[in-house]
Design goal:
Blueprint lengths: L1 H19 L1 E4 L5 E3 H20 L12 H19 L6 H25 L15 H14 L11 E4 L13 E2 L1 H7 L6 H8 L6 E4 L2 H19 L2 H7 L8
Parallel strand pairs: 3-5, 4-5
Antiparallel strand pairs: 1-2
């Protein structure tokens, strides 16, 4: 249990440092976050067009873009949680809520990518192109839609890098490979039931929490960089700018 407590404190510090990190200095000499950078780049594009289309010294106070704010909102949800639950012993509760908050953020990234054309044959966001986000989705499915997990007797919860995790009956594990197989879609329900129903001595082995967090943060940063590309700005500006 001490190991898990330590990990929650590590996650709190890592996510707080990442969230509060200033990406660059703006033209005003003030440090700007990754979220404010998105606001800035859209506003600068609109002001350039405005200045080139009028001979007047007309200025507008702001062209507010909502993408940065909504990404920050998703990240603040996670930050609030990791701060409030830092040092908790409630492994199952922590992993359940934390995963769902991460998934909500992953879905927000998916909405952006879908609008930018990253779609599968059915016209929806193509999760297969983003393995990190897809893994988060599968773990969230496990918590949201337990299926035959409901027929297990008192499974334990551990992190995969916990030195004290059980090392016996290792085939009886709900791990990342397991959720990728049984919780990516609605299929394989009968196979899952035959495997776990009315069984005991099973454990849920969650990924290394720090790596899980770092990978999600990297995906947010990559998405921000993708949005800042000129082609992305052109595709998004008409329905994300307040004064478009």
């Amino acid at each position: 249990m001490d190991f898990f407590i330590e990990q929650t404190r590590l996650i709190e510090q890592y996510f707080k440092d990442w969230h509060n990190k200033s990406v660059s200095l703006g033209e005003d000499g003030v440090s700007h976050s990754r979220y404010c950078q998105l606001f800035d780049i859209f506003e600068k594009r609109e002001l350039r067009e405005l200045n080139s289309s009028t001979n007047d010294n007309f200025e507008i106070s702001t062209f507010h873009n909502c993408i940065g704010c909504n990404l920050e909102e998703g990240c603040l949800n996670i930050l609030d949680f990791v701060e409030q639950f830092s040092g908790t012993e409630k492994v199952r509760t922590y992993l359940t809520i934390y995963t769902l908050l991460c998934y909500i953020l992953a879905e927000r990234l998916g909405v952006i990518y879908k609008e930018l054309g990253v779609i599968s044959n059915n016209g929806e966001f193509d999760w297969t192109k983003f393995p990190v986000l897809r893994r988060i989705k599968h773990w969230a499915n496990f918590f949201k839609h337990p299926k035959s997990y409901m027929f297990l007797h008192h499974p334990g919860y551990f992190l995969e890098n916990d030195p004290n995790r059980p090392n016996f009956l290792i085939e009886n594990e709900v791990n990342s490979d397991f959720v990728d197989s049984f919780y990516k879609a609605r299929g394989k329900n009968d196979e899952l039931r035959n495997l776990v129903a009315n069984r005991k001595d099973w454990n849920v082995i969650f990924p290394n929490l720090l790596v899980f967090t770092q990978e999600l943060c990297n995906e947010v940063d990559k998405a921000c960089e993708y949005v800042k590309q000129p082609d992305s700005i052109e595709r998004l500006r008409s329905f994300t700018l307040e004064n478009y």
